[in-house]
Specification:
Layout (H helix, E strand, L loop, with lengths): L1 E5 L5 H8 L4 E5 L5 H7 L5 E4 L7 H6 L5 E4 L9 H6 L3 E4 L5 H16 L2 H9 L17 E5 L3 H12 L3 E5 L5 H7 L2 E2 L2 H7 L2 E4 L13 H6 L4 E5 L8 H9 L3 E6 L18 E3 L8 H19 L15 H23 L7 E8 L7 H16 L8 H7 L3 E7 L7 E9 L2 E10 L3 E7 L2 E5 L4 E8 L4 H11 L4 E8 L5 E8 L5 H8 L4 E8 L1
Helix pairs in contact: 1-12, 5-7, 13-14, 14-15
Bound molecules: nicotinamide-adenine-dinucleotide and 3-phosphoglyceric acid.
3-phosphoglyceric acid binds next to loops.
């Protein structure tokens, strides 16, 4: 049974996806205080939020059963992403479902600001007929400067063109060619500041964008500029905006978002030049249905072990590429788990070699599974593909991916090699068409072993009778051998035997095998 906590109001259309699923229990607690959430969170496998709930490191570190945090919306600045990644919790969002609503709200705010609609409306509601006080300005032929031309910025640009505005935009990913195609002007940040009559910000809130519009930016703007922020409080420095409005530099500002939400008493809201809404950009029936449905599908997919569509703290893999590489995930993890059992030392460096068909596929997700397998022995079950590479880096383990042409006759071959203080160990595996995964090499020995179940890896001397003695000893302990593979370096030299047996051996049983004089070492590996 998966326990899902819905901590913010989320549309029932989306929640239906979860209600209809098997083995899911849903708890709706949309008014939990941070301390209450901290206490309750260990009960849950999944947490669903919008922007209101702050998912802090404290909460995440107490969330011992949490697998996934779903954000029904775009911005994830209310979630401590580093803490989630470190703790192996995947974060997913719903980036597309509210784009239209946010763009429409931005346009509404810009128009409302230009025509002083909220102020005139309030006056009239107070029975004041003040036509001359509320003279506005047209947006036609004015220049709109857009900072952040992503999903919403782009939609705003098209709508502004419909209003016959000129559009200039700055975004690190915008090229002159793309701007030309859209019929807008490409600008640097400073160009947008100095040329625009209206400036609308549409970036995420992150370290790089926090307070990107401050006193210095306002100084570079035209006198009488209008400012719109329907992205995130904190992108514009609020004290600097206040000063710029009071000084007359800024004619007016339309803000949907504040640095401190929910609403705290704020001096900006006292200014008649400011029109404001309480973070309503995504608050339409359509947007809420869209984001809720998207995020609930992703949460369910993840809980069922399937690929998610909108991961935030993992690179997303298009589904055609995913279906090509997914069969290797299990092989990679098993190779990692197998190899790490062969050495008692902690790896210092990991080299993963991909060859044959594997040399031209997207290998990063396969690598994550190999690293996860390698780390499980020492770091336990909390290691997963979300945090494997973070945990490796934290343990100063360097990981190198290599594509090679050495296939050793296999159509696909993957080798995981670890360097430890006592030397280099490696294991190779392949996926055989229709037959599944095989371990085909252990160090310099060739083998053919299915990486499943209980394996015993025995390094021994190549002497007559060793195999018989081993078989008798195991028989005495009532251990049945399912399969056996042997290989040797040279006649009478060192050899390897890999047994697949029907039960995991007791330590005492392994010790008994080690007593044989031909045996160098015995390792049990449970895959
Ligand atoms: N008010 C609301 O209710 C509401 C609704 C939806 C989204 N949002 C917010 O709107 C913002 C934009 O959302 P989106 O879906 O368009 O995101 P997006 O990721 O599609 O677009 C963001 C764009 O900002 C650009 N960017 C990043 N750093 C930049 C920088 N330093 N300077 C200029 N551009 C930069 C990125 O390259 C990207 O193109 C986010 O902050 C999101 O949280 C608010
Ligand atoms: O980032 C977003 O998606 C918007 O800010 C919407 O936030 P909300 O879900 O709290 O309305």
């Amino acid at each position: 049974m998966f326990h899902i906590l819905i901590a913010d109001p989320i549309s029932d259309e989306g929640l239906d996806v979860l209600y209809k699923a098997k083995d899911v229990s849903i708890t709706k607690e949309t008014d939990l205080k941070s301390e209450e959430l901290e206490k309750r969170i260990p009960e849950f496998d999944a947490l669903l939020v919008r922007s209101q709930t702050k998912v802090t490191r404290n909460i995440i570190e107490r969330a011992e059963n949490l697998n996934i945090i779903g954000r029904a919306g775009v911005g994830v600045d209310n979630i401590d992403l580093d803490a989630a990644t470190e703790n192996g919790i995947i974060v997913v969002n719903a980036p597309n479902g509210n784009t239209n609503s946010a763009a429409e709200h931005t346009m509404a705010m810009m128009m409302t600001l230009s025509r002083k609609i909220p102020q005139a409306h309030s006056a009239l509601k107070n029975r004041k007929w003040e036509r001359s006080k509320y003279v506005g300005v047209e947006v036609k032929n004015k220049t709109l400067g857009i900072i952040g031309l992503g999903r919403i910025g782009t939609e705003v640009a098209y709508r502004a063109k419909g209003q016959r505005m000129n559009v200039i935009a700055y975004d690190p990913f915008l090229t002159e060619e793309k701007a030309d195609k859209m019929g807008i002007t490409y600008g640097e940040f400073e160009d947008v500041l100095s040329e625009a009559d209206y400036i609308s910000v549409h970036t995420p809130l992150m370290k790089e964008t926090r307070h990107m519009i401050g006193a210095d930016a306002f100084r570079q703007m035209k006198d009488g500029v209008h400012i719109v922020n329907c992205a995130r409080g904190g992108i514009i420095e609020e004290d600097a905006l206040y000063d710029a409005i009071v000084s007359g530099k800024v004619a007016g500002a339309a803000i949907d978002v504040l640095e401190e939400e929910p609403f705290q008493d704020h001096k900006l809201l006292e200014l008649p030049q400011v029109v404001a809404t309480p973070h309503l950009g995504a608050s339409t029936v359509e947007a809420q249905e869209n984001v809720a449905i998207d995020v609930c599908h992703d949460v369910l997919s993840h809980l069922n072990g399937d690929q998610v569509k909108n991961p935030v703290n993992l690179p997303s893999v298009p589904s055609d590429i995913f279906s090509q590489i997914e069969p290797y995930f299990n092989l990679a993890e098993k190779l990692g788990m197998f190899l790490i059992r062969l050495t008692d030392d902690v790896p210092e460096e990991v080299n993963i070699y991909y060859s044959g068909e594997l040399s031209d596929v997207k290998i990063a997700p396969i690598t994550r599974n190999a690293v996860k397998g390698l780390l499980e022995r020492h770091l336990g079950s909390r290691v997963n593909d979300v945090n494997a590479q973070y945990l490796a880096a934290k343990k100063d383990i360097t990981i190198h991916e290599n594509r090679t042409s050495t296939t050793k006759g296999f159509t696909n071959l993957m080798t995981v090699e670890v360097k430890t203080k006592s030397g280099i160990r490696s294991v190779s595996g392949t996926l055989l068409n229709g037959l599944g995964a095989r371990i085909v090499r252990v160090d310099d020995y060739s083998v053919d072993v299915m990486p499943v179940g209980h394996l015993v890896v025995i390094h021994h001397k190549d002497r007559p009778g060793v195999i018989g003695k081993m078989g008798s000893l195991l028989a005495e302990q009532h251990i049945n051998i399912a399969t056996m593979q042997v290989d040797r370096s040279d006649v009478g030299g060192n050899a390897i035997m890999i047994l697949s047996i029907d039960k995991y051996p007791e330590q005492s049983e392994l010790e008994a095998l080690k007593e044989l004089e031909e045996i160098n070492d015995v390792t049990a590996v449970d895959l």
